[in-house]
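Re: weekly structure request thread

Next one in the queue (697 aa):
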Amino acid sequence: MRLRKFRVRAYRCIHDSGEITVGDLAAFVGRNESGKTTILQALTMLNKDETLSALDLCDEMAEDLKKEIRLVEGEFELNTSESNMIKEKFLDLPPIKKIKLFRTNKKPEVQYEFENIKISESTDREINSWENFSKRILEFLDTIPNHLRIQINTKFFEDPPPVNQSKFDSALAEFNNQFHVIAMQDPKVIEEWEKIYSKPENQFSNLLSGGNEKSALENFIANQLHPRFVYFSDYKKIYGNINLNEYIREEKGERRESIEYIEDFDKAESVRNLFYLAELNINELEEVKNSPSRCIKLLNAASNRLTRKLNPAWKGDPIHVELRYNPGNIMSVVISDVHRDGTVTNTGLLNRRAEGFKWTFSFIVNFAAETQRAELKEAILLLDEPARNLHPTQQMGISDLLKNLAGSNQVLYATHSPFMIFDYTPGNLLVVELDKRKHLSRIFYDYWNADDKTLTPILYGLSRGLVESIVDREIGRNSRPVIIVETMSDSMYLNSFDKFLQDPNISMNPLNVVAAFNKNAVLPLAIFYRNHGYNTFILLDNTEESKQISSQLTSNDFNPIQTIFFEKDGKTIESIEDYVVLEDYLYAVNQTYEIKLRNEGYSSLTPEEVMSKKKKGVLENLKTIWDEHQDDDWGEFENEDITRYICEKIALGETDFLSDKTKDQIRSLYRLIAERIRQYQNAAVKTEFDKLQKPQK
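Done, posted below.
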């Protein structure tokens, strides 16, 4: 049975999630405290044995909660086998392919709903249920002679139904023997009893539970098909040495008083999971610990089992786990690296490994144990941050584990990591946002409409194809030249003015503009592109930091032709903004800040006022003016705001403020870039020609 849609209302911080569609392997992405964990925990309320606390109800919806509302509801799709199981028991019903489960604030149990299927709620003697079976037996007993009737113990038929086939067979066989002994003098009574006793429909496996068709169907689903939600949260780390005396005390519930109340389960849970995977019985260890040979044999077998179960989820070189018993009733967890050639290195206590290694090891132990202990099959697994603290390589290992589990289970998990997102199909990727004013969690099925900051890990994940293209040499060799710029502003200007000028002689079409994350990213990004076959050029401003980048590029075998500094009329200029005539640029500045700083005494800046600061470029001059107005709450000058204003006006065709001189100066930048590309290509061709001309030895 798979969850296909769900809705959560009035549960903790969630007012109403709306109806959400989910797939078999669905990720919930959202910022901290957006409600991801709450959603997963709300779904556990659909477990039949879960209890609802008053603290789970949303305080802000007290008025709504005065009436009965559905707190959590889920629509489930039955597979063919499950649908056939119901059909075999309820021949008169049409095929049931969907079931809705829901829990309300007024009734403690999970309820069922069968859409578009009419199911009788009237008492039905034809239903082959325990209740009707018991009633038929009691009615038969009322027909036999009273002197026999008063001797027969009918408690078995008056109690709730037995829990399994074995208890049913045992109790019914005992009653049958009792009946034969009491009625042995009356063959006619025994004959009538045998007709009832021998009927195949009266076998326990064929009996339903419920006095009418609807209750029988609900009870059958509850006992045979009710979905299981299994929630996994944070786990305690396993360390190198385990004090078995403390562990045994914890197992017995003899916990010491603590200054802090801990809601999460104690660290003994992780040790218990470790021993479970190793199939190590602590009582058996207690029996053999004083016999070294028997103790070593027991622990070697446990260590091998543990290693065998952990390695499938472990990425990188395999590990070997060894459990050692030490004096003082201490169990040590020793880890070794096992290399492909069979050599074993780096043997030592787990607590000597890095924190990330310990967390990864502990997570896999806990997760593997919990899933194996539950014998998960056709369950719905709810995982809260399953890849927390893991290196991306290990995160991908956990994602493989989830994919494997999703074969026979449905997996819903919360994550912040782009490396844990591997399915971008709507329904398999959901975004959770919190409206802080209303304290209302919203879930986006169409996740692309969510807030940009919430989408950050998704966007990084979506860009993995771009990363892979950088390191694919075949793509690099067959791609247009790449020009790497220092800022997003540089990229916006180059692309916008290229579209605006529409000059075929200097068009940027042959180029692929790539914005570095910041100045420090320029050098490694350029090296990555160059090393993977791209013709790579770097556009730099004339700051001291950029000049250092240029020197580092030269040291890393870049041709000086590939590094382009901003220049105008043969003279260096500070930044790309200096290609824009000062009056044109100030128009954009004044239009932007006249609105932003209207209440802060801002007045339009003039070219003379800006030039009077005598700095190297327009940006430095403007930043100086803003520094002088710190007490006026002008804040910092953000040149990217101006970039966006200019580029937006270009996109809208509202460019009257841009003079012909600005256009000509921008054209000169394109000509400079195009000339450098030609020079480099000619130099490359000459180098190849010279190689061919070398005499053969």
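Residues 660-693 form the longest helix (34 residues). Residues 258-266 have pLDDT under 50 and may be disordered.
Next request, please.
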